[in-house]
TrEMBL record:
Keywords from the named record: Cell membrane, Membrane, Transmembrane, Transmembrane helix
Organism: Microbispora siamensis
Main location: membrane
Membrane topology, record value: Multi-pass membrane protein
Subcellular localization(s) per the UniProt record: Cell membrane
Protein name: Transglycosylase
Keyword Glycoprotein belongs to the record: no
Transmembrane feature ranges: 6-24, 31-54, 66-83
Top-level division of the source organism's lineage: Bacteria
Family according to the record: Belongs to the UPF0410 family.
Length: 89
């Protein structure tokens, strides 16, 4: 892994995590760092699922893969927010 790939994963994770929070209704009691981590994990899992399903990699934006990643980020943010809410009780 190079510095560029690590920084790219962080940026992509931040964007995917932010989109996940945007599409999830209500307030999520998680910070920006946890949002980035959820986004990175969602991006990695979404890419793996897309590859297993045979989604073609294109030189442009892979919309099917991106949708999978954002849906996984919504689910991930929801799970993490639920866990954080439950631990405050």
């Amino acid at each position: 892994m190079t510095i560029e790939s690590i920084l790219g994963a962080i940026v992509i994770g931040a964007v995917i995590g932010a989109l996940g929070r945007l599409f999830l209704p209500g307030r999520q009691p998680i910070g920006w760092l946890l949002t980035i981590v959820v986004g990175i994990v969602a991006a990695l899992i979404g890419t793996a699922i897309a590859q297993v399903m045979g989604v073609d990699t294109t030189p442009g934006i892979d919309w099917i893969e991106l949708v999978m990643q954002v849906v996984l980020a919504v689910v991930g943010v929801g799970i993490v927010a639920g866990i954080k809410r439950g631990s405050r009780v």
